[in-house]
Request: fold
Amino acid sequence: MVKKAPRRTAERILEVTLGLFNRFGEPNVSTTLISAELNISPGNLYYHYPAKDELINALFDRFERPLHALLGAGDDVRDVEDAWFFMHTLFELIWQYRFLYRDLNDLLSKNRRLETHFQAILKNKTRSIRALLDGMRRGGALHIDAREIDATATSMVVVLTYWLSFEYVRDPRNALEEHNAQAALLRGAQHVLNLLAPYLEPTQRDHLLKLSDAYNKEIT
Reply:
């Protein structure tokens, strides 16, 4: 039987750090805690990541690459079914790196690289949502004045970006724990997509409500 090669220490460090950041919040996790969780010496940790910001930046890079690829899929959305799948997939990725959104303002205030990159992410999210709206409008699923697209896209991006912060404020002890993932993701996707309800073609609005009802039953 061929033994699997041991995972590289640097990869293990990132995986454990992500779990700790997601659970406790980045400001509450020290490099000493990370070392103890990994059962390695602080020197071993510093050999791979000499500063905590390097851990944060490495995790951010892991998030940013698939995010940009996913946002490109906004161009292919034509109806509510497409939008539902797109939004849930987007929230699933955000959930995997939820510490970035839970501690967003704090992280941006002390990390210049994250500050500039998140500004680019906001622009890319907005572009993607505009493309989604335009595709649904051209496909007949959405009846919206072209002059309303920018404001609607911005509102959707605001909810998308700060939804997990809202969840955390509502229930700081439980909101971002793993067992709440499905409910949190569902609520976020629903609230973003509900901003489209006034503009949806009637059968598309009914379909959105049916999708919401089905998922609500699944998590209750």
Remarks:
- The two ends are 44 Å apart (CA to CA).
